Amino acid sequence: MGRGERDTIARGAVLHEAAQAVAGDHRRAVEAVRAALKPISDAAVTRELDAIPVARLQDVTEGRLRLGNVEKNGLGTVGRVLEAGPYRLRQIPGVGQRTVDQILAAARRLSEAVHETVAVHIDVDRPEPSTTALVMALHVLVEAGPDARRAVDRAAALSERLGPLLTDARPAAGRVRMLLAGRQKRAGAVTAVAEIRSLVDEAEQAGLPELLAQASVDLLRGSSSDIAAWVDFELRSAEYYSLLAEIAGRPPDTAAAEGFLPEEIAERVRTQQLDDSHRRVSLRGYQAFGARFVLAQRKVILGDEMGLGKTIQAIAVLAHLAAEGQSHFMVVCPASVLVNWTREIEARSALRVTVLHGPDRHYAFADWKGRGGVGVTTFDALRGFPAPGGGEVGLLVVDEAHSVKNPKTKRSQSVALWTERCERTLFMTGTPMENRVAEFRNLVQMLDGGVADSLGERDALAGSVAFRKAVAPVYLRRNQEDVLTELPSLQQTDEWEQLSASDEEAYREAVRAGNFMAMRRAAYLRPEKSAKLDRLREIVQEAAENGQKTVVFSHFKDVLGVVKAALAVGPTAGTPMLGPLTGSIPAGRRQQIVDDFAGVSGPAVLLAQIQAAGVGLNMQAASVVIICEPQIKPTIEHQAVARAHRMGQVRPVHVHRLLATGGVDERMVKMLEKKTRLFDAYARRSAVAEATPDAVDVSDTELARRIVEEEQARLGMTNARPPTSG
Predict the structure, then answer these.
(1) DSSP letter for each residue of 106-149
(2) Can you give the pLDDT at residue 14?
(3) Can you tell me whether residue 636 is helix, strand or coil?
(4) Cα 540 to Cα 670: distance, rounded to the nearest angstrom
(5) DSSP per-residue codes, 12-33
(6) 3 state SS of 354
(7) What is the band of 102 on the pLDDT scale with cuts at 50, 70, 90?
(8) Of the candidates 313, 131, 315, which has an alpha carbon nearest to the alpha carbon of residue 237?
(9) Facing residues of 653 across strands?
(10) Does the reported pTM lie above 0.90?
(11) Is 119 exposed, middle or buried (CB count within 10 Å of its CB: 0-12, 13-18, 19+)?
């Protein structure tokens, strides 16, 4: 054995050490989370047990216990019984050793059940040392991101292969060792060295040493400060809670996470591989299952309830197919979410995105045909593009697929033709379809004629189990209450909209006039062609179809008037609407409006001026919040959202902030994000800031003047009027 063999063994040993180091760093980071979680979890369990009457022990023992004397001696809860222990229980008259043993055994069984089910909720508005320690420990893993998880998984696989090979190759590390080894061990060493060389070369070509090194650095870096960790938690709370559920070992119910699919389909989905090399975001368990379902079943409807991350699941499928060598993909969606799709794909994956919309869409389409990537277009624009040849498009994604439920419309016919020509198709809709069998059948017909032909009205009448079984090959739907058991109760989405030509004209007039406030509400001045208003209607309609209540906030009374008029017609016309709740309405009357809103059975909409409704009112009946435009002070938005997202809220709250690209909204978001995020996060936790929202001053007048001047310059309005705030 020569120097080459020794060098190979040395290279293998270095790589093996790096792999073990990453695994150890990750293990220590996970243990830090568990250590921070334990006192919080124990305290939550204690509170739960202290709230369970001691009489519940009868249920555990099927009524065999006599607990009257126990209660009379002040041990009225299961928590008090466990705290008392066997000695104290034996002092109670009429309670013998056997009864003590039975009582404690039953109490411990209840305690174990509580331990398994108790949920830890992190209160961002009331941070304590224990929750701060937990958020900081989680921050390390969240910041390390998907690359660290990828590195840990690959390190484990590499260690499993390299460890035994290095042991077998040990005789080849020196001539004397090789001479002293027997013939069988020498042959084994030669084989092991060859395999180590192959493994190391493969790892180096894939950039694995660099991936492992970066993961170790990220896992050892720690949080820069507790404030930074809390701010990141607010921005990415879903990732924190998902990681927490995984580490705590309390994933959602498997059957629910898998949409109650028949076992044979669920098993096929579970065995489907999911490549994450082109993806930049981690998936929750149910999301990974959803992506695998799309891949395994090829042409499907993903009908998850609003807020469960259908877009992320679609991007995971796109990323997997790109890793497999597919080059062209198409996303079809309403114009109102086109910008969102573009930004999400760019942020969450390494895939190239081309917008196929607007006057230059045919040039963009030719560019997409030539260079590949993800084309994002609208239903109307799709009709003008030639349908692909077989196998040319790796995946067709149709968002808001209920828009093509009528087969007689041209948009439905266009989507049907593309679906026929694509190997894989994903229809997405958050609208529940179970009780609309005729419409649902039309969608299924595009994907699988056999399933559609077998689907009759009787399936809906037979109940949800029969329906799910009939459509299982093509339909997956999960509900929030089934899969978000450990996820946060607040999810925020920035809804970026491209201004329509009419919106743009109104906006330019406001900029030319130097009127900052008019610029902020220009997107609603011409309701008949308002992009923001179109998206607002869609959100309200989807919320109503899911039985959810919605609060719509705006700074401007006239915007609320426009919204009210828009919601009073069309698909949202039947939804009860209350308000507008404005500053001119007396405080007592405001609360009555909110109470009336809560008293509506089923969906409803409450319109509210954000300054008037942001303080003092509880709106926890709402689970959807829409903010019509960004506010100058972040505290105004935070306090308004807090009216719905507070104790008593039983469903996750989804906040949609409507934003227009390329103008005042984008400038406000960027300036305020950089200038006030850390300070605001700190200030909101102080007693002064909570009592006095205006304590956080971001110099409103100066900010307005600066934005107006920059917008006038961007639009080339040299002769425009000087800025005003009116």
Answers:
(1) HHHHHHHHHHHH------TTS--HHHHHHHHHHHHHHHHHHHHH
(2) 93
(3) helix
(4) 27
(5) HHHHHHHHHHHHHHHHHHHHHH
(6) strand
(7) confident
(8) 131
(9) 490
(10) no
(11) middle
**How confident is residue 32, by pLDDT bands cut at 50, 70 and 90?**
very high
Write out the two tokens for 177. 């060792």
**CA-wise closest residue to 368 among 386, 356, 379, 380:** 356
- As given in the structure block, the two tokens for residue 387 are 């349908």
- Relative to beta strand 373-378, strand 353-356 is parallel
Q: Please count the residues of the chain.
A: 726
**Which residues share a beta bridge with 384?**
none
Alpha-carbon distances, residue 156 vs 20, 152, 686 (angstroms): 8, 6, 45
User: What type of residue is 717?
Assistant: M
Burial class (CB in 10 A: 0-12, 13-18, 19+), 474: buried
Alpha carbons 92 and 79: distance in angstroms, whole number? 17
**How far, in Å, CA of 142 to CA of 188, rounded?**
43
CA distances 452 to 418, 462, 687, Å, are 18, 17, 60
Radius of gyration of the chain (CA): 30
Same fold yes or no, 46-117 and 490-714: no
Beginning with the edge strand found earlier in the chain, give each strand of the sheet holding 605-609 in spatial order: 490-497, 653-660, 624-627, 550-554, 605-609, 577-581
The tokens for 98 are: 């056997």
Q: What does the pLDDT read at residue 110?
A: 87
In the CATH scheme, what architecture does the domain 46-117 have? Orthogonal Bundle (1.10)
- pLDDT category at 604 given cuts 50, 70, 90 is very high
Q: Which amino acid is at 339?
A: V
Q: What separation, in Å, do the N-terminal and C-terminal C-alpha atoms of the chain show?
A: 85
Residue 229 CB neighbours (<10 A): 24
Which pLDDT does position 466 carry in this prediction? 67
Q: What superfamily in CATH does domain 490-714 come from?
A: P-loop containing nucleotide triphosphate hydrolases (3.40.50.300)
Count Cα atoms within 13 angstroms, Cβ side, for 82.
Answer: 21
Q: Is 591:618 a contact under the CB 8 Å cutoff? A: no
What residues contact residue 647 under an 8 Å CB cut-off, 6+ apart?
Answer: 620
Nearest 10 degrees: Cα torsion 642, 645, 647, 652: -170
Residue 630: both structure tokens together: 């960004």
CB-side exposure of 230: number of CA atoms within 13 Å? Answer: 24
pLDDT tens digit string along 310-365?
999 999 999 999 999 999 999 999 887 788 799 889 989 999 999 999 899 999 99
Ranges 17-26, 184-193, 617-626, 688-697, most confident: 17-26
In the structure encoding, which two tokens stand for residue 708, read together? 């107006």
Residue 378 vs residues 329, 405, 418, 439: alpha-carbon distances, Å:
14, 16, 13, 21
The CA-atom distances, in angstroms, between 513 and each of 518, 524, 558 are: 9, 17, 19
pLDDT band at 187 (very low <50, low <70, confident <90, very high): confident
Token pair listed for 114: 């509580």
Could you tell me the fold of the domain covering 252-483?
Rossmann fold (3.40.50)
Question: Which one, of 247, 305, 334, lies nearest residue 491 by Cα?
Answer: 305
Residue ranges of domains in the chain:
3-43+124-232, 46-117, 252-483, 490-714
Q: Is the pLDDT of residue 690 over 70?
A: no
**pLDDT value at residue 585:** 84
Q: Strand 490-497 to strand 653-660: parallel, antiparallel, or no bridges (unpaired)? A: parallel
